[in-house]
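Task 17 of the worksheet. Students: predict the tertiary structure of the chain below and write it out as structure tokens. Keep your answer in the requested format; marks are given for formatting as well as content.
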Amino acid sequence: MERAPALATTESYKRLLEQALERTRTIVEEVSRKVGRAAPDDPRAQITAWRMRAEELRTTADGFELPSAQEKLRRAAQDYDLLADKTEAMLAHEPEKPSDKAG
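Model answer:
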């Protein structure tokens, strides 16, 4: 009977992941429709997709109890936001901030 709590936790995480996957599919379908209306190489459509994915990752992180899982998901969301920010800056012909440069 000691395994019941672990099994319950595993099942809870499986359900959360299944729900996150379903939400992700919905977002991907929505973005695909938007991108389909945009020019094929429209970077603004890609920026929208990255921002939507970042929000999805943050929402998914809120559903996890494990701080390490939350941290990894939120870090991935930050990476998507950073990618979108840098792409927007390039489109606006803005120079990259020194603090953003690797090194």
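Marker's comment: Residues 21 and 60 are 9 Å apart (CA to CA). The mean pLDDT is 79.
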